[in-house]
Design a protein that fits this description.
2 strands, two-stranded antiparallel sheet, mainly alpha, about 220 residues, 7 helices
Length: about 220
Amino acid sequence: MNRRYFCAERSRPWGSYFCESGANTEESAKGNDALAAVFPMMIVCMLVVIIFQVRSLPALAMTVLTAPLGVVGVVPILLIFRQPFGFDAILGLIALAGILMRNTLILVGQIKTNRDEGLDTFHAVVEATVQRSRPVVLTALAAVLAFTPLTSSAFWGSLAYTLIGGTAVGTVLTLVFLPALYSIWFRVKPTESRERDNAGSGVGEAADESDFEAKPQQA
């Protein structure tokens, strides 16, 4: 049995009873208490590492906001396979948040790289999503396949299901949610590539005309 309850009679005149949980339930409660003690320090360290990497408060906020997206996939898969939400599932949620925030950091970094290469913000967001969608999805698929054998385990089953459902759904939502959030946050407006090309060609034609006019003067 996964749960065991001990009942004893209290020394009261009316003969009431009380119950205490033991076995896996008791161990899970001890694990949750130990995790809650170090959780605030863990959050602070995580935020410090992210801010040193992105060096931007908006990027930090967007990275943190994508972390809960995995819950959308965790809750249905735990209900479908009737898995308990205990200490193992909580550990899976923490690991899942790290996976999704890593994907966000990859996308934000690619957007910055595209902007440094001369693309406007709108096309930098679009190109970054297209460029990084394949490696991000393949990495998530590899993680899902790696966690699949653990689903048959009685101890690690809930953790495996949490990571499988959260990684699969959260990765797809990140690829959709982050570009939209980035565009809303920085008020990015769509621009047409034709206008940009025409502007570039106009500059080239002006340069050619100035060179053509300069040659007779030199002659």
